[in-house]
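lol so apparently i was supposed to do this last week
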Amino acid sequence: MAQLTDDCFAFGGALMRIEDAVALIAERLPVLAGTEWLPLGQADGRVAAEPVLALHDVPPFPNSAVDGYAICHGDLNPEGETRLLVRGRLPAGMAAEGIRGDGGAIRIFTGAPMPPGADTVFMQEDVRREGDVVVLPSGLKRGANARDAGEDIARGARAIPAGRRLRPQDLALAAACGHDRIAVRTRLRVALFSTGDELTEPGVPLLSGAIHDSNRVMLATLLVRLGAEVADLGILRDEPEALAVRLRQAARDHDLILTSGGVSTGEEDHVKTAVEAVGALMFWRLAIKPGRPVAMGVVDGTPFVGLPGNPGAVYVTLLFVVRPLLARLGGAHDIKPLGQPVRAAFTYRKKASRREFVRVSVSPGPDAVLEAMKYPREGAGVLSSLTETDGLVELDDAVTAVATGDMLTFYPHAMLW
Ligand code: AMP
Ligand code: MG
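anyway here it is w/ magnesium ion bound
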């Protein structure tokens, strides 16, 4: 397994922009995932480990794009209608051998090979049939309704780049290019812990001072959506020695250790102490809200990320820090989701020099432009601000105020995962 150096997360600046964090991750960290071959039907959501090349032209031969009549454009009367004798019939799946498309017309169907000599197809809706003869109107361009061999992908061309997270349409293209299996990255093995003496397993009655652990199920399921294999290792108590032992164990057979809670700089932040004892720890003071400092570390050569404890901060830091990190370790292209424009239906003030993600609900305004309404309660600990909203709007670093009517960038929750 690749070993990370203890200083790989070192960062000199005081406040770190998201873009700098992502760039540093891409520069300093290796791809840890291996390669395996999977049948296409099992590769949805996995990451292509190698470029997929076309084994043959797609389509493999020139063919008709419509049901109609294949002809040679040179046989058409440039002045008006053309009458051609229908000399053959070509359904899809039949070979065109022995059939010629010049000097007459061939009744042809979508996907059937273009007969030699033919270069153009009239749609059946546009012609008149008179017995053995088809009457063709004038004005159709040469090559109309005919598809060239290789016009989608030429033989040997790269159909899918390495690093693409495979979608159903990618798998369709791989199949069309002649493949039945694909080389994909192995899933990253992520060790997941919650930390805190106040945490109780969901479903277990709460004693005084306790809360239910809600981060772990959110993180575990988000990580699975991001393609990881998650080892749910439960709750760690705030005891540095025991924590250190568990982190060391986890480092042995995982590609990443992820925790939430216990990494601020207070005296009760025992994860910090434990990681410092068995490895190296760097605090990244990210210029984002919500998201307090995120702890980046290395335990015995394995990367460690300590997320804040508050659920709102967990969500945002997972999206903007852990997601690019997983992409890098897993050999995937990190694609920032493409936000959509929305109009602010709220006013807001914010500090300069940090990116802020505001939880909003959206609905179409009177002119059908989407309008965003801010969730009334702001705390990073308010879980319902994630469940009762449609997504996040991104307020740029330089922005200090939002006025009603401002155009903002919106990322739906559904698009983020
Ligand atoms: P900490 O960073 O450990 O000081 O935690 C910050 C806040 O997040 C505290 O209110 C914790 O109780 C809360 N918190 C920490 N971990 C979890 C968790 N797994 N589930 C829900 N809340 C948590
Ligand atoms: Mg804690």
